[in-house]
Design a protein that fits this description.
17 strands; single chain; 13-stranded mixed sheet; 1 helix; globular; mainly beta; 4-stranded antiparallel sheet
């Protein structure tokens, strides 16, 4: 509608084909459990609907997107009720049909654009995603999608000097509680997580850049809560830090 504004609407058809590990009828130990593939899996198919828009200037970006996914044949790992060496045996199955819907926001702006001219090489980038979901099985039972948080948020402070191809950023990344419940009534939830990441990049010649990245600077652990009737189990998993150094 204007030189600064773009509006979008789209409809798409998508197919999520099972991975090899999900189809192969073998059991794999993943640390906390065993997972068994299922050669009878069908692809998960979906219709996707999106409506969104962007407002862009040289110093700022504002964007939003509304989305809705109608999914047939949702693929999830299901507890078989069998234990192997004290660990649950899960099987990959098509658990039912459902939907995922939500809204995404993104903002970027230069600090110079808000009157801080001495900090014009700094910018802030943030995004937020609000999600809700539901899957229904053949018996009419409903639950949220497994591994689907209700909120994801990120914020980054970025220092950038285009003349030297230098870019440095410090980012905070938050994911709300992640449910992994199944239709048997067992509750399996990963606590919300907040990680700090650091990234730096600079040019060492006209066509070569060196970059470094540290994920989860503070080494935050991951906590999982499992509830099965009167039995409650808390697991703490050390995710550690990840380091990367490379060339572009």
């Amino acid at each position: 509608p204007t030189t600064d504004t773009t509006l979008r609407a789209s409809v798409s058809r998508q197919v999520n084909r099972p991975k090899f590990d999900e189809l192969a009828p073998f059991q794999q130990e993943t640390g906390a459990e065993f997972i068994e593939g299922n050669p009878n899996l069908d692809p998960a198919r979906s219709w996707s609907f999106d409506v969104g828009g962007d407002y862009v200037t040289p110093d700022a970006f504002l964007g939003f997107n509304l989305f809705h996914r109608e999914v047939e044949g949702v693929i999830e790992n299901v507890d078989t009720g069998i234990d192997i060496n004290g660990k649950d045996l899960l099987r990959t199955e098509n658990v039912g049909d459902g939907y995922v819907q939500g809204v995404e926001f993104e903002q970027r702006f230069s600090l110079g654009a808000i009157g801080l001219e001495n900090l014009s090489e700094f910018s802030v980038q943030t995004n937020q995603t609000f999600i809700r979901s539901k899957v229904e099985n053949a018996q009419g039972q409903t639950k949220e999608f497994a591994q689907q948080p209700n909120f994801i948020g990120n914020v980054s402070l970025i220092y950038q000097v285009p003349s030297s191809a230098t870019k440095i950023s410090l980012s905070g990344n938050y994911v709300s509680d992640i449910p992994n419940d199944d239709f048997s009534g067992k509750k399996d939830t990963t606590d919300g997580e907040f990680y700090l990441d650091f990234y730096a990049e600079t040019g060492i010649s006209e066509n070569v850049r060196v970059f470094g990245w540290v994920e989860n600077i503070t080494g935050e652990d991951r906590n999982k809560l499992k509830i099965d009737g009167a039995k409650t189990e808390v697991e703490e998993e050390s995710t550690g830090r990840a380091f990367m150094l490379g060339l572009k």
